[in-house]
Amino acid sequence: MNPTTSKRRIRIFDTTLRDGEQAPGGSLTPEEKIRIARQLVKLGVDVIEPGFPISSPGDFAAVQAISRELQGVEICGFARAVKGDIDAAVRATADAPLRRLHLFLSSSDIHIDFQLRKSRQQVVELARSMVAYAKQFVDRIEYSPMDATRTGEEFLFEIVEAVIAEGATIINIPDTVGYALPEEYGRLFRRVRENVRGGDTVEYSAHCHNDLGLAVANSLAAVQAGVTYVEVTVNGVGERAGNTSLEELAMAIETRKETLGVETGIRPEEIYAASKLVSRTMHMPIAFNKPVVGRNAFQHEAGIHQDGLLKNRSTYEIMDPERLGIPRSMIILGKHSGRHALRHRVGQYGVTLADDELERLYARFKETADAQKTVSDDELIRLIGETTARVIDRFAVRDIQVVSSSDRARVASIVITDHETGEEQVYSATGAGPIEALTACIKQAIPLEVEFEDMELHSLSSGEQAAGEAEVTVRVGEALYKSSALDQDVLMATAKAFLSACNQALRAHAPVRVPSTSAASAG
Q1: The pTM of the whole model exceeds 0.85
Q2: Of 5, 239, 388, 498, whose CB has the highest number of CB atoms within 10 Å?
Q3: What pLDDT sits at residue 509?
Q4: Domain segments of the chain: what residues?
């Protein structure tokens, strides 16, 4: 890189496995932590905080295993300003090729008075003595005055100066309760550096919570104030409203790096895989409108936007989803969609429409879209067949039956029509749950090796008459295929979506040859 155009490197400190796991319901087993840690290394993070070693035998084992296995990444042992915590963190990270200890102790009056029940001087002396104790074992010591953004500046300066004097090498100024505004947070780093003896000899780290939705903005303010590290979690998971979102911060820097003058080592192509892994493992769905990785982040329904995107992606997208490892499905068909988008989607199914056919399909499409929130892939394929007397998908679900029981395997049977042969076939299978049993039935009909990759179920309205939307992703080899279906019966919606995704895979491998007369009778 040309030295005159080089950018300052921001190090990404990932605390998904420690602070992120503190999200209610987000507990992880040691095996799950190791699996996520491996993905974090692929993602390109610089530091991993794998857990809180003193908190449980499982956390200690996870931190120890990750420290032993992962190379090329710094491992951080987390500890309160307590000797027992420090000892556990030292032992757990002993085999890490590169490590630091991260000590924390409250500094705001509200924490000191009501949680610690100590005087300010006692807090300073405790911080000083514990940093000195930790320094015997590890050279790289990070210190966090917890609730720093609600701590008076003078006392913050005093405690930071004390720990630097004892050997702290990294000062983290955490916005523990998400209270700060960006200009306040950035200024705080500058003030500490300017007013603390030794403040210009250490590195700085930012740790923000998202209670007011400002975690990423505050972290960027800290970046502009000169921090070296930003502490993040995948999908922004964490206490209460969560932490700074790794993917949002990384892509904000990547997208605006010329303006910010900084860069990270994050590999964008691994972002989506990391996001999905954390979401599934923690059982925490990603909000539809979540920036970067949410379902709607690169999807567009408005006709004007769809028209612009089909002409040039950059008209309404500032990032390339495929570069992030996200399958491209930018056009969502709904009542706001126009003819251009409809023709484009139909073309993706290998169908070319005459102008009069497009008008008939568009009229039926609008009627359907007005009656429901979106038009699913399964529904659109049905409309094409009814309008043009053609069959797009080789296989179609005709009927399903599922027998459930609380103490035995679920039994499913499904009737599938093969439009290529004109025959109907019944398939049966069992599974631990009804969806497993249904998909096992469908796999018997598909002449490909299909893996069930992912599924989302959503209610599209309230009440007992609500329709369910199933969005299913399947894997064939290295390729992913995603489709959706609607039905008041969520099992039928799942079966239709799964089969529709399988049909997509079949079209990708070979065209479906179905006489138009068969199509007319099948419709």
Answers
A1: no
A2: 498
A3: 81
A4: 3-282, 303-375, 395-522
